[in-house]
Amino acid sequence: MKEGEEALAVEPEDPADVSLTLALTYAKLEDEEGFHALCERADERRGPAWYALARAALAFKREDRDEARTHIARLLALYPNAGTTLARQDDLPDGVFARLAIDPGTEDELILATSEATVLLQEGCDSHERGTFGWWVANLPEVTQAQARELAADPSLGEGQK
User: What's residue 128's pLDDT?
Assistant: First the structure.
């Protein structure tokens, strides 16, 4: 975290999107104060998925399910095929896990953010072999309904499902 903050101090325009990784880090550490301080100086338009996932995780950890749902609903509204992405929560394969060049607001952006948020989604363990937050997100009625609509419109989205 120290290195990320130092990188932002040196390069406040954040061309490497260090702030996106920091957002997830603050959420993982349950450091809401640090997260809010980051949000005050970061341009959240450059990665709304990372910030929404971090906010949802922080709300979930403090047991504010209504707020967490609000952030998941934002993802469903912002990104194409978000229901499928949030239900599947696919990881990028080892060796590919890096910040790829992607277009903002695309399905690829949400896939990348969700993959990087694995540390939040798979935290803890429940009887479904997912982290409790990840299981909760994947099974939200609005996520499962969105996924069903997306799969009806494009059955190929279900190919290779876990």
Answer: 63
Q: What percent of the chain has pLDDT over 90?
A: 70
Structure tokens at 68: 């967490």
Q: What is the pLDDT of residue 95?
A: 54
What Cα–Cα distance (Å) separates residue 140 from each residue in 15, 131, 144, 145?
Answer: 34, 14, 6, 9
97 CB-near residues (< 8 Å, 6+ apart) = 91, 115, 116
Q: Compute the radius of gyration of the chain from its Cα atoms.
A: 15
CA 162 to CA 141: how far, in whole Å?
Answer: 19
User: What is the C-alpha separation between 106 and 122, in angstroms, rounded?
Assistant: 23
pTM of the entire predicted model: 0.92
- 5, burial (CB in 10 Å: exposed 0-12, middle 13-18, buried 19+): middle
Is residue 63 over pLDDT 90? yes
Closest CA to 38 of 49, 112, 27: 27
